[in-house]
Amino acid sequence: MEITGSSMKILLVDDVQMERIQLAIRLKQLGHTVEMADSGSRALELYPQFEPELILLDISMPDMNGFEVSSKIRETYPDWVPIIFLSGHDEPSMVANAIEAGGDDYLVKPVDKIVLNSKLVAMQRIAFMRRELKQKTAALAKANEELAKLAQEDGLTKVKNRRCIDEKLQEMITMHGRHELPLSLILLDVDRFKLYNDNYGHLEGDRCLILIANILNKLFERSGEVVGRYGGEEFVVILGHTDQTKALKDAQRIQDSLAEASIPHLYSDISDFVTVSQGVYSKVPSGRESIDEFYDLVDKQLYQAKVSGRNQYKFSE
User: Fold this and answer.
1) Are residues 171 and 306 in the same domain?
2) Element (H, E) at 196
3) 131 within domain boundaries
4) Do residues 81 and 55 make contact, with C-beta atoms less than 8 angstroms apart?
5) Which residues, in sequence order, are bridge partners of residue 84?
């Protein structure tokens, strides 16, 4: 039976140089990639970098016998790789000890060519199935990662969605309360966004929100900073380890970055460009507060920014 991708990476461990070289030549003639080790300790050094698909392991070695090497591999590396023991002894007790030590098969030296070839064909089938399984596992892990990412993303702007931002805020309230650290929240609203949509169209409105989200993502990319879409044309920024002084500087950075972006809004009575109003709230939480308390307090500051003329930020004194 021909096995697709039948070449295997074989780690050959034998302290007898002549036997090691002869067997390696035979394995290479069969198309396999071979790495040789002359001791058990050398085999353990080579294992993680070579990542073998089959190990041919001599039992009788001076520094560390094959049983010890096999047990160490099984103990250290959870990913199963078949081990075939090599020995000049064929007593049933040796075979039993080999299996007990984590071995999968046993060959008596000098190794018969026909027997060796048959064993290798069986191992090739296993190696092929393991490769397929690893590929499928990796693909599944990637798909799950993408699904998890999509579950946390706002579909339009690609920042965190409301559900994710709520969970993050609750986690950070608890954590900052436990360690008595300052936590800040910025809630911002795009000024006169209805007029923008009505005059430029909803597609341009979507592009405007995406641009603002991108600006916020670039401004707040450090650990402990989270950007999310609160809803509609509102965004929220969670700032971990941030007191009011730093939070106000961050609010000013948002104002400055939007001014620099100069997104045209000729139908606004605030400016010829898109602007935002911001509420800022900072506190060293006890850890017992709800997210609704934080949202309510920061929303009041946002309201003050709006009634005071928009294109500015307000904070709790």
Assistant:
1) yes
2) helix 193-200
3) yes
4) yes
5) 56, 105
Question: Does one domain contain both 202 and 248?
Answer: yes
CB-CB neighbours of 255 under 10 Å: 17
Residue 317: per-residue pLDDT: 62
Catalytic sites, residue numbers: 233
Residue 262, by phi and psi: left (phi above 0), alpha (psi -120 to 50) or beta?
A: left
Per-residue DSSP letters for 21-74? HHHHHHHHHTT-EEEEESSHHHHHHHHHHH--SEEEEES--SSS-HHHHHHHHH
Residue 288 DSSP SS3: coil
- Domain total in the chain: 2
pLDDT at 158: 93
Same domain, 86 and 59: yes
CATH of the domain at 58: 3.40.50.2300
Does 166 lie in the same domain as 135? no
Indicate whether 178 and 138 sit together in one domain.
Answer: no
Give the pLDDT of residue 243: 96
Q: When comparing pLDDT for 44 and 143, which is higher?
A: 44
% of the chain at pLDDT higher than 90: 73
pTM over 0.85, yes/no: no
